[in-house]
Amino acid sequence: xxxxxxxxxxxxxxxxxxxxxxxxxxxxxxxxxxxxxxxxxxxxxxxxxxxxxxxxxxxxxxxxxxxxxxxxxxxxxxxxxxxxxxxxxxxxxxxxxxxxxxxxxxxxxxxxxxxxxxxxxxxxxxxxxxxxxxxxxxxxxxxxxxxxxxxxxxxxxxxxxxxxxxxxxxxxxxxxxxxxxxxxxxxxxxxxxxxxxxxxxxxxxxxxxxxxxxxxxxxxxxxxxxxxxxxxxxxxxxxxxxxx
Length: 244
Known about the structure:
By secondary structure, the protein is mainly alpha-helical. 77% of the residues lie in helices and 0% in strands. It is built from 13 helices and no strands. The chain has helices at residues 2-6, 12-26, 33-38, 43-58, 61-66, 68-74, 82-107, 109-133, 140-157, 162-170, 176-205, 209-226, 236-243.
């Protein structure tokens, strides 16, 4: 398995390091969520898990999924064609997810998640522009649909799955359960928040509501670029030293 994963026959050093880590963890107790939040040695890892998981939902992907038909209707797509458009976005979602699965070990975690959030941010801004101009330029309705597809594709390629993998790679075994609780709780809390407030945000801000999601996506991408290291083929010890 290590030969295939690392692409080299020289794996004895890796096995030795794994055994040393196993011995060091054999007498270590699992930490609680409160202990994790108070542990200053992993505070940047904990903050990174919180930022990425919250940004995953605050990026606006839930607004796109929950209200896709409404968005298409506001974009001027005929009601009879909306189901076919929705089916098309579902197919794009599957293809983008497969691309992410097959490329993550080749290109790394950071490029996928940064590219995904940047694509979502640009497409969110594109939806705002298309909705503002579609009255004067009827063809802008198709730009709006393309931007919706772009948001879904960008999300499925990186932000949809990479945060869960990065959570496991940023912490040693004693901290991982608590880290997953923190990340998962923030994930679902932000999911509920976006689903609840989006209709009110849309009524108050109109087309400009998507600029909020654009800002969130770009800020998360900048955080990942400047703070989170690449974790591909790195041990926890190496990642911890990089954070330090």
